[in-house]
């Protein structure tokens, strides 16, 4: 019986494209963050696949074995730390497992779960992205000789942010559920931080604070909903 895991012939990395031959699975629910990673992979020579939740990621992993998996810790159907733990104990193990989040306290959580490293949002520096992967690869999977260190900062298309606002608007329609409210707070804060949207980030943080303190969330939710609608109707999303 044929092994269902699909392999690809690795290509040799180069100084200009140091991740050539790698396939990166990004487990991330934000289109804006995914667009940043897509551009980084494109500039680096890596191929990218995307899963927007744990369930989708596990389906991918039943068929494909990526070289690198980058996992956001706040996902709509659970914590990315659970998937990190699964992959870190799997045999054979994925070459590089990275946690990702916009929350400062999330890096220790990802490392404790078994991640090799961590990417903090917002994702901007191409050089930092490349180094976060290369440092954990065996030497024969890295480019030989001097490597070109890019000074480029990645800026995703604002349309991707509008997609995130549309997703948030849909989720807000189900905000009677306590778990959904927590997800709204986490997602709004994270995606706003990535995009530099200070008003939405502040509103998401206020909702998170209200939830932690056991306060009513209706006012904070309404504030977020108003900001989201303004982003969707504005001709310039950010």
TrEMBL record:
Keywords of this entry: Phosphoprotein
Give the CDD domains listed for this entry. REC
Task: Say yes or no: keyword Transport present.
Answer: no
Top-rank taxon, per record: Bacteria
- GO BP terms: phosphorelay signal transduction system
Domain annotation Response regulatory: ranges: 23-136
- Spell out the SUPFAM superfamilies in the cross-references: CheY-like (SSF52172)
- Which residues are modified to 4-aspartylphosphate? 72
Task: Tell me the protein's name.
Answer: Response regulator receiver domain-containing protein
Q: What is the organism field in this record? A: Salinihabitans flavidus
């Amino acid at each position: 019986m044929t092994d269902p895991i699909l392999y690809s012939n690795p290509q040799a990395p180069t100084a200009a494209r140091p991740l050539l031959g790698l396939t990166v699975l990004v487990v991330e629910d934000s289109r804006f963050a995914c667009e940043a990673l897509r551009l980084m992979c494109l500039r680096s020579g890596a191929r990218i696949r995307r899963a927007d939740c744990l369930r989708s990621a596990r389906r991918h992993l039943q068929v494909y074995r990526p070289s690198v998996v980058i996992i956001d810790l706040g996902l709509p159907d659970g914590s990315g730390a659970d998937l990190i733990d699964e992959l870190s104990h799997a045999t054979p193990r994925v070459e590089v497992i990275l946690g990702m989040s916009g929350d400062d306290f999330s890096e220790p959580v990802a490392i404790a779960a078994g991640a090799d490293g961590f990417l903090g949002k917002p994702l901007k520096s191409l050089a930092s992205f490349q180094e976060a992967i290369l440092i954990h690869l065996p030497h024969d999977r890295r480019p030989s000789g001097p490597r070109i260190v890019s000074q480029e900062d990645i800026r995703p298309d604002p349309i991707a942010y509008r997609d995130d606002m549309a997703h948030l608007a849909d989720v807000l329609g189900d905000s009677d559920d306590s778990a959904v409210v927590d997800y709204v707070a986490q997602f709004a804060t994270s995606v706003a931080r990535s995009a530099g949207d200070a008003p939405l980030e502040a509103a998401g943080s206020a909702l998170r604070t209200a939830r932690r303190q056991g306060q009513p969330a209706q006012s904070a939710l309404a504030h977020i909903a108003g900001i989201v609608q303004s982003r969707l109707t504005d001709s310039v999303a950010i």
